[in-house]
Amino acid sequence: MNQEIWKPHVVVAAVVEQGGRFLLVEEHTEEGIRFNQPAGHLEEGESLLDAVRREAFEETAHHFEPEALLGIYRWRHPGKPQKTYLRFAFTGRITGFDPTSALDEGILRAVWMSAEEIAATRLRHRSPLLQQCISDYQAGQRYPLDLLMDFADTFESGAR
After folding, report:
1. What CATH number has the domain bearing residue 48?
2. How far apart are CA 17 and CA 23, in angstroms?
3. Which of 41, 53, 123, 142 has the fewest Cβ atoms surrounding its Cβ within 10 A?
C-alpha cells in the first residue's frame, strides 16, 4: 500500500506596524500578484524565531526582531486541498534597513499600508491569514515568546 504521508507546510510571518501602517510584500504567486505579510517556510534546523527574522529580511530588507507570538493559524488552501499551512505569526519591531539588499525572487516590493488600505485590497490577499492577523493584532492579541520551546538538535535523552 503506497500511501503518501501528509505533512503541513510550517510557515512564519512577521506582523509589523509603525505609525498606523503595516509592512507587507507584494509578490508574484500562482494566482497572480498578491499581498501578504513577510512570510515563508521554516527551514530544517531553524528555530521559528530565526525563521521569521530571516524571512522578513529576505522579503523586505528590513531587520525584524520578534517580541510576541500573535497566533498560530491553520489554513487549507481551497484550490489545493492537499496543501495545509500551519502559520506562526509574530509581532515585533524593525531594527534596521539595508537598502542594498536584493529582495527574494518573486517579491515585487515591500510596502507600508494602513489597515483600511489592506482591507480594501482583500481580493488581492494571498490568503485570509493576512486580514486575520491584522484583526488579531488590532485586538491586542499577544502571547509571550517563552511559550515556544525550541530544543537544540543535540538534545540528549533524559536532559532538559
Report:
1. 3.90.79.10
2. 7
3. 123
